[in-house]
Design goal:
heterodimer, A: about 300 residues, mainly alpha, about 0% strand, B: about 270 residues, alpha/beta, six-stranded mixed β-sheet, three-stranded antiparallel β-sheet, 8 helices, 11 strands, globular
Chain lengths: ~300, ~270
């Protein structure tokens, strides 16, 4: 077999230069907007919307179209809110609801993750309970509250039961969707590199399914939060303490519209807050690492 | 210029790859599709063999058999060079790992320690001229760079006769086998031309045997020491050209092979 043509030194450096040139020309470039503009672009629009909303509210209240017990002034609601902060009651209410939601959500993750894996990887299991689990997402979990009250009474078990049934389908379905969307070439690459079943799942399949899984968890959090509120509004008892849902019910029972509105705003605030503080940054980090989210 | 296989067969070495009477049928009964029939092919250690054929010639099936991803229906496939390195048309890098960790992954799977992994990955990235790019993520690299990372990763996966290539033996993967399934087909012409040159350089540096699948006659003639033409549906070896012989006019040969390939394709219009 004749020796391959000898490449001269100059030719070699030429090739290196061409390669470096190609690399420089073809590499995707990323432009980042300045920090101030980024903050303004994301922070200003919602702020303006909020101010406009409060202005409209104040105007409608000032026109006295509705009686005071139906539509209080923004300031009255603020005073109600500030009152709960001042006497420290708000922390107790938030703690009761938040720790339930977080515990319920974590338990849902622990149960839903192996369940999702089973459905995704075992065809019989998928055929048997896949459609049921997908359908469960459209069943409002508040529908479980009456049954849970009859089974477990007015206890914490009732509340957790409803939260779990609300969150588990979302998380499991998210994981299944994430696994289904893994490009088939990736497991094949694992196979030719000599990955066994477990290594392949741990190092290739699960990380590849992570974006879908996180989306499922995000939805699961939203579902567990709203299920919890439904359960707290319906299942009220002194032993259960006063969470946000019970606080809302209390406002309604006492005909206190400022209390009701303050409770609704708090529920919204917590739901959005967790989403913005926990899930959004996590999701962005994961997506950006894969080049899936635009750098803003 | 027909194949002169006797020269290869006469040597003392066993082939890096040895296919004898290999057939592959997908499905059963009336729906069965014969992808390959009676394929005899031998790749010597360190040899660069190009499989050339139109769509449906079972090139990819053949490569899957050699890679151990699939089993032949008949005949035997012997691979005598440990686990081969496999490269696909897409780079198929893991998007959540940076270039360095992508290259490290096969080493991690075979239980190589962290420091040794780092070192080997750095050597391989150096080999494909990507030193200093280890911390870049796949989406930050160009198509050609990604395919070079994929090549480095494929080389990291090779084992020579059962043992993981040790980090001590430099950039060499002596006696390894590299299987490439149209690796440059999705790249632009300039990048493809550059990478063809790079592959030649890396092949010479690693002394690995290469089995390269393509449907591009020019690419086949440029890269191969031996070009094997496959027919389509079912795929079988039609003819071989030895480009290693002295005084081969590559221009002329390109014409000749193109002509033969067109003939093979035309037969399908008649049947």
């Amino acid at each position: 077999m004749p020796a391959p043509e000898v490449v001269s030194e100059t030719e070699r450096t030429d090739t290196a230069a061409v390669g470096a040139g190609l690399d420089a020309l073809d590499s995707p470039t990323e432009a980042r907007k300045p920090v101030l503009r980024r903050v303004l672009a994301t922070g200003l629009p919602p702020l303006i919307a909020l101010v406009l909303f409060l202005g409209a509210w104040q105007a409608v209240w000032a026109s006295a179209m509705y009686p005071e017990y139906q539509l209080p002034a923004p300031l009255t609601v603020w005073q109600e809110f500030a009152g709960t902060v001042a006497d420290g009651r708000i922390w107790q209410i938030l703690w009761i609801s938040l720790h339930r939601a977080v515990l319920g959500f974590l338990a849902s993750v622990v149960i839903a993750t192996p369940l999702g894996l089973l459905i995704a990887k075992v065809p019989v299991v998928r055929a048997a309970i896949g459609p049921l689990l997908a359908g469960m997402q459209s069943l409002p979990s508040v529908a479980w509250v009456p049954a849970a009250v009859l089974w477990f009474g007015l206890t914490d078990t009732t509340i957790y039961f409803v939260v779990l049934l609300g969150a588990i389908p979302s998380i499991a379905n998210g994981l299944v969707a994430g696994i289904d969307q893994v490009p088939p070439i990736l497991p094949r690459v694992g196979q030719v590199m000599g990955a066994g079943r477990i290594d392949s799942a741990r190092l290739i399949l699960l990380p590849a399914a992570l974006p879908g899984y996180i989306a499922g968890c995000k939805q699961g959090w939203a579902f567990s939060w709203r299920s919890l509120m439904a359960a707290e509004i319906i299942a009220t008892s002194p032993q259960l303490g006063i969470g946000l849902g019970a606080y809302l019910k209390e406002g309604s029972d006492f005909n206190s519209m400022p209390g009701v509105i303050a409770a609704i705003l708090l529920i919204l605030l917590v739901g959005v807050g967790i989403e913005l503080l926990a899930f959004r940054p996590l999701e962005r980090r994961v997506l950006r690492a894969r080049g899936l989210a635009a750098a803003t | 210029m027909t194949a002169t296989l006797d020269r290869h067969l006469g040597t003392q070495h066993r082939g890096a790859v040895d296919l004898q009477g290999v057939g592959k049928v997908f499905g059963r009964g009336a729906d069965a599709v014969t992808a390959l029939t009676d394929v005899d092919l031998r790749v010597q250690p360190g040899e660069f063999v190009v499989l050339l054929g139109a769509s449906g010639c079972g090139k990819t099936t053949l490569l899957n058999l050699v890679a151990g991803l699939d089993r032949p229906t008949s005949g035997s496939v012997t691979v005598d060079s440990g686990r081969p390195a496999v490269m696909f048309q897409e780079p198929a890098l893991l998007p959540w790992l940076d270039a360095g960790r992508n290259v490290e992954l096969p080493l991690r799977l075979s239980g190589v320690g962290r420091a040794a992994r780092r070192e080997r990955a750095a050597q391989l990235l150096d080999l494909v001229r990507l030193s200093g790019q280890a911390r870049k993520r796949p989406h930050e690299l160009s198509g050609g760079m990604r395919q070079r990372v994929a090549l480095a990763r494929a080389l990291a996966a090779t084992t020579t006769n059962g043992s993981t290539s040790s980090p001590a033996n430099g950039t060499s993967t002596d006696g390894g086998l590299l299987l490439m399934d149209e690796p440059f087909a999705a790249l632009d012409a300039i990048t493809r031309d550059f990478l063809q040159g790079e592959l030649q350089r890396i092949w010479q540096a690693t002394r690995a045997a290469v089995l390269f699948v393509t449907h591009d006659v020019r690419e086949a003639v440029r890269l191969g020491q031996r070009v094997v033409l496959l027919s389509s549906r079912p795929g079988t070896v039609v003819r071989e050209w030895d480009l290693g012989a002295a005084g081969v006019d590559r221009e002329e040969l390109t014409e000749e092979i193109t002509g033969r390939l067109r003939e093979v394709i035309s037969t399908h219009a008649r049947t």
